[in-house]
Amino acid sequence: MSLPWGILFDMDGTLTDTEKLWFQAETEVLGELGRPWRAGDEMDIIGLNLIDAATHLATMLEIDIEPAELGWMLTERVAAIGREQGMPWRPGAYEILELVARLGIPSALVTASHMAFAQLALEQAPAGTLEVAVTGDQTLIGKPDPEPYLMGIERLGVPAERTLAFEDSVHGLTSALAAGCVTVGVPLKVDISGVDGAILIDSLADVDEAFLRAVMP
């Protein structure tokens, strides 16, 4: 049983519990735009890229604003909140990155968030990890399309079938599977049990070297 040649990580909800930061940003920005935002409203946009999420919000809440402008406002606000509060790592996330670095496995961040926010996680990650970053402002099509993961795989320079991806959303799992990655789901807020082909675990804290070897074909 060999180790993966490359590992790709989603950020929001997988490595970091930043959904609460996004909810705060969405609540503040949409409140300033005169539209209510309630707990649970975020469920439909988890895993979407920023423009698709902003388009959904503008349509759902009937806000007369361009999705790109709303996306920029949300990114600016969540980045400010992240700088103030720090990036909250999910249980086992920092440790798995340390493990990946120790084993010498190249790793990438594949996130729907824009670089302005993702940069905070890149700066706080252990040295020698997340050498590659694919962010929502670098892709033409976001998750669930395979493009973000295909781009990450290409930048890592490894075969898709030798890569391992970690995700927390249906959109993210669908994207990684379609790109050909061995795909592991780590649920946070949404039910991901119905995604065929995904390996489900309870926590990143359950991942060790033996797990990384066991899941690879």
Automatic annotation (TrEMBL):
One family name in Pfam for this protein: HAD_2
Domain of life: Bacteria
Molecular-function GO term, any one: hydrolase activity
Keyword annotations from UniProtKB, A to Z: Hydrolase
E.C. number(s) listed in UniProt: 3.1.3.-
Protein name (record): Phosphorylated carbohydrates phosphatase
Native organism taxonomy: Bacteria, Bacillati, Actinomycetota, Actinomycetes, Actinomycetales
